[in-house]
Amino acid sequence: MDGAGTHGPDTDPDIAGPHGPDTDTAPNPTTPHGPEGPPPQEPYREFAERYPAHIPLPPTGPRPVPGRGIFRPVTIRTGRDAVAAAAGYLRWLGFRDVVQPEERPASGVDLRAAGLVAQVDPSTRPTGLRAVECLWLNGLSTSAVSAFFSLAGYTPEARTRAAEVGLPLFVLDLTGTPQPVNRAADDLAAGGA
Fold first, then answer.
1. pLDDT in tens, 90-114
2. C-alpha distances out from residue 137 to 3, 75, 154, Å
């Protein structure tokens, strides 16, 4: 036999061959999708429509307010450097007459200005709940904005309490640049004094 006129999987267009149905034929009304065919698909959108060209990053650092200029950090080598870096940052935010006492008072407040109390923790352990609550109470008693700066970060309890009471928390890196840790700090960094 020469195979002329015979029908088999390789010659009959209505029967699937060894590699699936023949793609040049009309759809079979008995397909798994029914006689209506496959379900409708969303219209095709270009890549640029599906994926935006720029996704804004979440606020993580201070953004210069017009007229404020660029913050110039102080490299931190000692505890006094950490206090000086925080004082410079607060001045940059717009707090005037930020002063640091010669000796640290019992209240733990390292920096004061009109309408501001701030504390700096230069230790290598995360700042705890008690220190955050004490600073918050100092701010309440003087009707002032409170801000906390730490080199080693904060315990989870301290971060939770600061979020509850709206106390700005900042972490100082060794270059002396404060990084906001919570929403209150983001708001203070964005809006200034």
1. 999 999 899 987 776 766 678 999 9
2. 97, 30, 18
